[in-house]
Amino acid sequence: MDLKEIASKQILDSIQTKKDVLDTLLPEIVQAGQIASKVLENGNMILFCGNGGSSCDASHIAAELVVRYKSGNERRALPAISLSSDSAVLTACSNDYGYEEVFSRQVQAFGKPGDLLIGLSTSGNSKNVISATEAAKKLGMKTISFLGGDGGKLKGMADLDIIIPRKETARIQESHILIGHILCSIIEQELFQLS
């Protein structure tokens, strides 16, 4: 296979994945946007977590909310945080309690009833995202999972699952960031009438 074929195949796979997301997950995506909007409208906060590339996606989406999603959409900052961002907390918790607790410990510190946890896990089997979801539910937080494949062990744990119907990590992550951007668009429309 030549390099153009490799590139072309990935682009076509990505397009097909997004078509499948459009055909099968639109109601869940809109529902996630409405949940997140209501949480923020009520004065609560959104916490994000994920590992590896999903960690970066969690930080990316949180930044879009704190700063702004679309250039020119001037609005107040929204309370969102990525639990993957503080290296001191991550390393201290890993050392003292184990990596499985790095997000749940922060949920216990920052979360409160009415807040929202969005956990990203391409496999659905990330033990630290599972622990964070359990901790959030104990606190009375709302929970949404961005997953892939068959949803793994996280499937059914959160209030709402958005499961990308693919096994390839790259396609799942591309779709998760697209859905994160849609979430930001819905929030800006619902809270500020900014499109």
From TrEMBL:
Keywords: Carbohydrate metabolism, Cytoplasm, Isomerase, Metal-binding, Zinc. Zn(2+) binds at H60, E64, Q173, H181. GO terms for biological process: carbohydrate metabolic process; D-glycero-D-manno-heptose 7-phosphate biosynthetic process. Pathway: Carbohydrate biosynthesis; D-glycero-D-manno-heptose 7-phosphate biosynthesis; D-glycero-alpha-D-manno-heptose 7-phosphate and D-glycero-beta-D-manno-heptose 7-phosphate from sedoheptulose 7-phosphate: step 1/1. Substrate binds at N51, G52, G53, E64, N95, D96, S121, T122, S123, S126, Q173. It is found in: Cytoplasm. The reaction produces a racemic mixture of D-glycero-alpha-D-manno-heptose 7-phosphate and D-glycero-beta-D-manno-heptose 7-phosphate. This is Phosphoheptose isomerase. It comes from Leptospira semungkisensis. The lineage of its organism: Bacteria, Pseudomonadati, Spirochaetota, Spirochaetia, Leptospirales.
